[in-house]
Amino acid sequence: MPRTPRLFVISGPSGAGKGTLLSQVLRQRPDLGLTVSATTRNPRPGEVDGVSYHFLGEDEFSRLVAEGAFLEWANVHGHRYGTLRSEVDDRLARGSSVVLEIDPQGAFNVRRIYPDAVLVFIEPPSMELLEQRLRARGTEDEASIGLRLSNARLEMARAHEYDARVVNDELEAAAARLADTIDSFEKNGGNSQDGSD
Ligand code: ADP
Ligand code: 5GP
Description:
Elements: E1 7-11, H1 18-28, E2 33-34, E3 38-39, E4 54-55, H2 58-67, E5 70-76, E6 79-84, H3 85-93, E7 98-101, H4 104-113, E8 118-123, H5 127-137, H6 142-156, E9 164-167, H7 171-188
Parallel strand pairs: 1-7, 1-8, 2-7, 3-4, 8-9
Antiparallel strand pairs: 3-6, 5-6
The structure holds adenosine-5'-diphosphate (ADP) and guanosine-5'-monophosphate (5GP).
């Protein structure tokens, strides 16, 4: 069955496993274009400018906001993050599906601009596991973990508003379900799978 390129928004609480699941899916689907967001937060060890994010100073971020360069931007856990219009439009113009990995505020803002965007909620099996995974990742201090967990409770309450939900329990299985979800929206608008290629 032919695929129709779609705009996918992968969202959910910090630590739910969005980045981990997407890197698995992109290995099987290198044709999916994952956009690189801009942020004012500092790079973590190992993060590369222009690959993980476009790391910007506050003034440069403000300049791009004023120029209308962002499709959406939001304050997330104390820093600004935004999706550059150019990243999305170039890929859609080339006829490939586009994937945004952004926070839930951004996801609902994108839906207002692109009503056909497919919003996928990545959820942890439980709040306890979310906290364990955030701590094990070791990238946040105590205050930031607390903020992410309290935001997560509010974000989970809106899970039913998404077009699809993937519980990130066992990694390989959850990644396969995310890949199937993407596939089914490209092939038949998210209706039940018909098993053909
Ligand atoms: P997000 O991108 O949503 O903030 P990450 O992808 O960084 O989340 O995942 C948070 C942490 O949980 C990471 O340390 C990651 O290795 C771990 N993790 C992700 N998925 C699973 C899983 N299915 N089982 C166990 N640990 C996981
Ligand atoms: P982190 O600092 O852990 O990389 O990301 C923190 C949060 O910011 C995550 O929930 C991530 O999805 C979100 N985020 C990353 N890029 C964007 C973006 O361009 N826009 C919005 N709204 N959120 C983003």
